[in-house]
Write a structure and sequence with these properties.
A hairpin with a 5-residue loop joins β3 and β4. The chain has one domain. It is of the alpha+beta class. The protein has a five-stranded antiparallel beta sheet. The chain contains two helices and five strands, in the order ββαββαβ.
Length: 95
């Protein structure tokens, strides 16, 4: 069962279209509104998927505080921030 964390802090449980096959890249691109995803292994064994190019976009940028905290706990670069929405998947949910 995957967790979607909106940049505004709201969270929702999401499922892949095909639960046997898991999330496809196309599904993640659609959920995250992006063309390139970045995977970060979290300290608890889950994977956080985010927009690889979010920091390069012009306009309003929303820091995802919850995801930024998870990134720091996973050993991310001190002071780094996660921009936009993220998808947190359990092992085996992405094929």
């Amino acid at each position: 069962m995957a967790n979607f964390i909106h940049a505004n802090g709201n969270e929702a449980t999401v499922h892949p279209i095909n639960r046997k096959k898991g999330f496809s890249l196309h599904e993640m691109y659609t959920l995250l509104h992006c063309e390139t995803v970045q995977a970060i292994q979290l300290a608890d064994g889950r994977t956080m998927w985010m927009d690889e190019e979010a920091k390069l976009r012009e306009g309003v940028q929303f820091v995802n505080e919850k995801a930024t905290k998870l990134l720091a706990e996973a050993g991310g670069i001190p002071g780094d921030e996660v921009i936009g929405n993220v998808l947190i998947t359990e092992p085996g949910e992405v094929k």
